[in-house]
Amino acid sequence: MHYHQLFLTLVAVVFSIYADPSPPVWPIAFQETFNETSTLPVVGTGTNIQGTYYYDFDKKAVRIDRSTGKYDRYCSSVKYFQDTPCTHLVVEGLRYLIFPALKSCCMCCTAESGCGIVKPDWLSDSKFIGYNTTESVKYQVWDKKGLQDNFYWQVDATQVPYAIDQQPNDLMVFDVTSFKKGAIDPSIFALPSYCSKSHTCPLLSVCTVAR
Ligand SMILES: *[C@@H]1O[C@H](CO)[C@@H](O)[C@H](O)[C@H]1NC(C)=O
Ligand SMILES: *[C@@H]1O[C@H](CO)[C@@H](O)[C@H](O)[C@H]1NC(C)=O
């Protein structure tokens, strides 16, 4: 081997060790539970919101259950700050807000108006911030900049989603032991009988702006 070849090989090795990891890509389908701390102006801060995230890109479906909708700006704007469970369900291009304890449901907004689901590569334009090893687990930290920083954390070894930190007012921390990859039971995305696409959310809700 010539010296310059050896040199180039060494350069390649060094780059592969120090290069940033490639941007996160979500599995086509997964589910995972989370805890959330969320602040809504006027309403205040909810610190122990429990939830489950179901994502299935093949079905273009998402369901996000929360133990309370009080601190979610969509749910809260429909039920005026009530402390009652709330689900976002996106199916067939429409986002519904469902209040299971109240057997109440309304169609919020359409995928065409930006209420659809994210693509598995929605983080492709995010910036690698670095690793965080404060806990015994090594996490990758990414920033998908919007108006504010949106930090996304995943476990370095397994690429399992760990946190979505929408600065400054919403932090979802996933329980990585609950992560399940693969197609989701269709019953999860079934529209409750009390939902109808013609029943749109109230005029004075955030949904009207989104529509
Ligand atoms: C890692 O995350 C913790 C919070 O979980 C934070 O306090 C710490 O500053 C972070 N470390 C680095 C190097 O960013
Ligand atoms: C989420 O909150 C529950 C109830 O406070 C707690 O038992 C659980 O350990 C939390 N999970 C995580 C991953 O922090």
UniProtKB/TrEMBL annotation:
Keywords: Signal
Domain of life assignment: Eukaryota
Secretion signal span: 1-19
Entry protein name: Uncharacterized protein
Organism: Adineta ricciae
